[in-house]
Each structure stands twice: as structure tokens, then as C-alpha cells.
Specification:
Helix content is 7%, strand content 51%. By secondary structure, the chain is mainly beta. This is TonB-dependent siderophore receptor.
Length: 820
Amino acid sequence: MPANRPASSERRLPRAVRIALLSMTLAAGHAATGASAMAAEAPAAAQQAYQLPAGPLGRTLSGVAVNAGLSLSFDPALTSGLNSPALQGSYTPRAALEHLLAGSGLVLVSRTDGTLTLQKQEAVSSAVAGAAAAPPATLAQVEVHGVTDGAPDQTRSTGATGLELSIRDTPQAVSVMTAQRIADQHLETLQDVVGQTTGITLEHSSASRETDQLFSRGFAIDTYMFDGIPTTKLVEPAGFDAAIYERIEVVRGAAGLMGGNGSPAAAVNLVRKRPTRELHADVELEAGSWDKYRAQADISAPLSEDKHVRGRVVVAHQNADSYVDRYHQDKDLFYGIVEADLGPSTLLSAGLSYQNERLDGASRGFAAYYSDGAKTDFPRSTNSASSSSYYIRKQSLAFATLEHYFANEWTAKVAFNYAANQYDAVQGYAARGSLDRQTGAGLSLWQTKWDSKPEQFSVDAFASGPFEAFGRKHEAVIGFSASDMKNTGPSYPSWVLPGYDATVPNFFTWNGNSPTPNYVGTISGSYTEKEKQLAGYGSLRLRPTDDVSVILGERVANWKRTTESVNWGSPTMNDEVESNGNITPYAGLVYTINPQWSAYASYTGIFAPQTYRDRNNRVIDPLEGRNAEVGIKGDLLDGLLSTSLSVFRMRQDNLAEMDADQLVLPDGSNAYHTVKGATAKGFELEVSGQIQRGWQLTAGYAHSRIEDQQGKRLQTSQPLNNFKLWTSYDLANVGNGLTLGGGVNWQGDIYQDGMGPNGERFTQHSYALVALMARYRISKELSATVNLNNALDKHYYSTGYGNYYGDPRNVTLSLNYRFR
């Protein structure tokens, strides 16, 4: 996407954003005053398998309590500066807590109401150690109530290295979107969720979302994982409904060690919801702007008396119109998973998900410029799609995992994933030609049809655990992965249907009525695309001292992609790209400055096969390069508030950039060329967690710039700067409980050259979107939530090409009934 740097490509940050940035710093300093993490669940007594490394005591205790459904409260001063030992094996939740407290000078004490607290050992005599204890009235308590014993630890991630590391001990920038945050903002698609994380921008350019793209550090995100297992972008994971995920992890920067391809943007790890050991059910009804209606249920329960077999089901149905004329959506979702304890140390799980979505009247945008070079300014309700346009997408996923915990603290796991999509689409939208500003003439439909069935099978097997060397304990992971993708379908006339009158006489008065295209007998051939990858990987976490961790890793992969295009009456076209023995190195260093702060540095290689094609319709060469990052991370309030600052620099060869003349290839995509010696650099700042009792905050600021060897800015359709803030506060004393929340997403200027008939530059100036939320607990089980998005009704383009609008102000009301 070539462009010259504008004379003033960025406006000054709005005063509100500057104040918000200052408040992030003040909040971090204020964080030593107290904390609370609220939820509710009955205690669980069955044994569970644990594999926890040593870490901050308070945070580890809180994680075990949440996962087990125990209600635990304690003074954060008691655990400040203390570390827990590693925990490996099967324990009851209470026994696990007692094991973690061993040697700390603290004991676990039961209250009369069944909740738990911590006290110093010398303050509890042996005669009353197990008796009821009242909480000290003057202490600031950390209260942790379990939400679900199926929820993974939200403070840990494996997406960057494969090692089970805390976010603080991971030498890369990591953000986590929890199920609670997703619910608070009422985020319904994976795309919406990831778009709310620090440094991520969303380019929304089509109603069907098939051309939408998420970006990190100026690069397109194309690395997605399900529970740590990579998947191909062809199965469109970004369009999945978010209801089936417990949390979503975003590792910014290259993550090729685990993600399969070391693209420079980010890796998104989707952590699925798992069954709970106790019955719980959530039922939600929703109504929103533009006749949007949704019903959703999430039910989890033990399937056997001893709770060794457990299941969970999530179902949803949604139908909605839009601010865009003639657009309608219908979507159905099913997700089911079963877990079984095959023994005290072996866990088997299997499940599937299915999403069926139909979109009518889905377009890819409208004409951005008139024939005289003036910018168009249509109402936001304008739809360039013909009435006969539709898009049907069916997405299926099946998975199974087997895990075993050994007595020597090692774990072995094998995971299988199968993904299959099915598409049927007829696309016709009035953006071809040159629009006359006076008469509305000059346009015709880009008309085509798609019918494809991409599918992928993947397997990942690894073993991880500790080992001793040179008198110290270290950790290792070694694994193997393989994937096989195939995409097939018939070939239809591309964008121009012979014999079809695609003319739009007057776009200003056109209501979408055009002749219904007949594709019977128009198939001209077929295409088949295959991609295979076979890789081995390993990583080490070496601990030369208590304060230093050295992380070393490497992935060696063989990759092959073949395409076959059969055009009846013409020679078959074959294209093959293969690359063997590709090595993706990883090196990281983490230095623990004190119990609250750590500094880190990391280096990783970049190797990412690309799907873009050049003007000769050939796949461009893989992206190659290196990524270096340094930063500092802090855990305040005994780990309840996290802060991070990362500084990065990347260098790439074969960076894909769209051709200036926007040449359209036979499949409807644009032609690209490669740029050698591109350099990206920037920084990111994030604060996330609990500032004080009932007050949650996540705020992040990111800056990134990409240049070629001559210093010319690249990727100008992505902002240099962006800022995100979301905060919520629980007013527990208002009625049965009121939660208020709000946030702002701000991004700087973007622009794109060569957009009009005379090569005009399109510029979208900086803008801020405000979101508000209020939730009232009507009863213990029932709550009502109102979400208001784009509260100030900002008018903006959601793409750098100036041909698609962002959502206007919209509101959603939801009722949630929760049974525990």
C-alpha cells in the first residue's frame, strides 16, 4: 500500500486521551491500597490435577480458589513478597492450598459461614486452628470467590513459548481478554474481542466480514490457535462467536515457535470453555438496535455421581437487521464438550462446535470517489449490494485431547483438531466504474459467486516438565505438530458474468433491484489448494539464579503449498511453493528486579508463508525477518494489577504491499508486490487489573511505524498511535448491586494514496469511540445489562479506503439468569 508520509499525519492526542494516559500512571501508583475479585461458587472437594510452577503466593492462592469454587479472603500484606512452591499432582482444592502455604508461616482457617481466610501461624493455636475465625476488622481484605472450576488460570499463558509461564514471566507483550470482560462489553465475535486489546486495530470493510482484517504493530494478524494448536486462516477463526471461549490471549509480536508461522503481528490463542464440577447455567436474552435479537444458554454439570465425567453445552441464536439498508443476519451456534477423568492423573476431553450464518444484502463497500475526483458522502445506511446478494457460511470444529500427569511432575498431552468450513455466496455490489456526481450513472455491479469447502486436520503432541542440572531446577517442553489443509471448489466467472446486465442506471435512486444472476451452467473449471506443515519444536527455561530466567527455543518446519486451477478448454495451471528445514529461533531473558517488577528481552525469527499474489497471479515469497523486544512488567496488589511497557523493533523482507494501481486478479483479490528491508519499531504501554475493591481497569497505548529502506512510511492505512481504555466499578450498596462501566477507543490519522480517478489521497482523521455499560442485579440469579456503543455517534470510515462506514450509535439490553 504505497504512500508518502503526509506533512501532518497525526494530530495531537485529544486532551481526554492525555488525561487518561496520566491516570494510568497514577492508578499504578495508587494500586498499593487494596483489592477485590468478586464472584460466587460453592466449594468443591473432589481431587483435581494440578501443574503449577512456583510463583507469587497471593496470586497462586487466588487462582486455585477461583478454579475450585472456593471463597477465600485475606489481607494482601500477609502474602506480599512471598512465593509459593511448585504444585504437581492430584489434590483436593483445600489440600492444594495447604501445600502452597507450606513454609510460608501462614495457615488456612475456616470461618463459620464456610469461607476461608489466612492467618499467621503463631496467631492460631493448635487447639483452634480448625475453628471459626472472624476476619480482622481493620485489614484491607482480598476476597476471591470461585466463578467456575472449569476456568483456566487467567494469569498464565503458553502461547509464546509453550512453557506454562505467568504473563509477567513471558518475555513478550501479552494481553488477556477474560469471559467477564467479554460479557461486560457485550462482545459477540472473536473479531470484536481481539479488537479491544491493546495495540490491535480492526479494518472493517465488508458486511460479511470476509475481507475484514485485524492488525497488530501495523501488520495483519494471521496466526490463530485453538487451545494452543495452530489453525489456518482459511477457516476464518476471526468470525467465530465469542460465546464458546473462556478467555482469549493475544501475544503481540512474532510467535512462530508455537503459532506455526512466525508472522510479525501477533498470535491469538482461543481458550475454549471447559466443564465445571458443579452445576451451573447461564441463560441470556438480548434485544438491540436495528431489530437485533439473541438468545443464548451456557449449561455445565457433572455427568456422573463422582464428578469424574463432566459436560458443557453452549447454544445461541441471533437474527438482526442493520443500519445498512437491506442487510439481514441469521446465526445459529452450538458448542459441546465432555471431560472424563480416566484416573487420578489422566484427563480426556472431546468436543465440537458448529456455527451456521446467513447474511443477505452483504456488500464490500461503495464508490469512494466521484468521476471528477470529489469524495462521496453517502448516508451511513447506503448499501451497494444487490437484493439478490447473499453469503452463507457454515463452520465446524471437532477436537479431542488426552493429558497425563506423571509422578515426576512431567505432563504429556496430545491434541487433535479438525476444522471444516462451507461457503455459498453470490456477491453483487455497485462499485465498478466511475460515478457521475450529477446523474448517478456510471456504475455497474461487481458480480460473482463463490462455493468452497476448506478443511484442516492438525495434531500436536508434547511433553513438558522440570529437570535438574547444575544443582538447580529448570523446565523444558518438547513437541511435534502437523497440519494438512485442503480447499476445493468450482470456478465461476470472476466479477463479470457473461450475458448479465450489471448496469446500475442511477445509483442515487437505486434500491438494490437488479436482475437475479443465473449461474447454472456457468462453471468454467475447478480449483484445489493444499497446504501441509510438519514441525518439531522445543523450549527451555533455564534458571541460573533465583532472579534470572533464560528461555531458549527453536522450531524446525517443513512447509508446502500446491494449487491447481482447472479451466475447461485451457491447460491446467499448477503452482507449487515449498520450503523445508525452516528454523524459527527464540531467545528470551527475564530478570526479577524485586517481588513486584521484572525486566525482559526477547528475540525471535520471522518466517511466514503468504497467500497474496503478484500481478502475474503468482504467490509472493514468504515473509522473513527478525523481531527484538525489551520491556518491563510489574505485578501490584499481590498480582491483582499488572503493568507492562514493551519496546520493539522488527525487520522484514518480502513484506506484502498492494500495487498502486489496485489491479484486480481473476479471483477478485488485489495484486501485491514485496518490499525488502522494511523496518517496524514502536512501543506499547498497558495497565490491567483491579485498582481497589470493586474497581477494574484496563488501559493501553501503542505506537508503531513501518518504513522501507528509504524511510518512506508503509502501511499508512494503519494508525501510528492508538489508545484503549475500559473500566468498571461495582456499587455493591446500591440496591442488590449496580455495576457501571465505560471506555474509549482512540486512533490516529490513517490515509491511502491512489484512491480516486486522479490518484487522490483518502484521509480518515483521528477519532474516539465511547462505550458505556450499566448492569443491575435484580436478584441473586437475575441481572439486566445495558450497553451503549459509539455513545457520541461519531461518523467515521472503518477502513483506510474510505468506502465503508463504522457502526453508528447503538444500544443493547440483555437479561441474564444465572443458576449456581
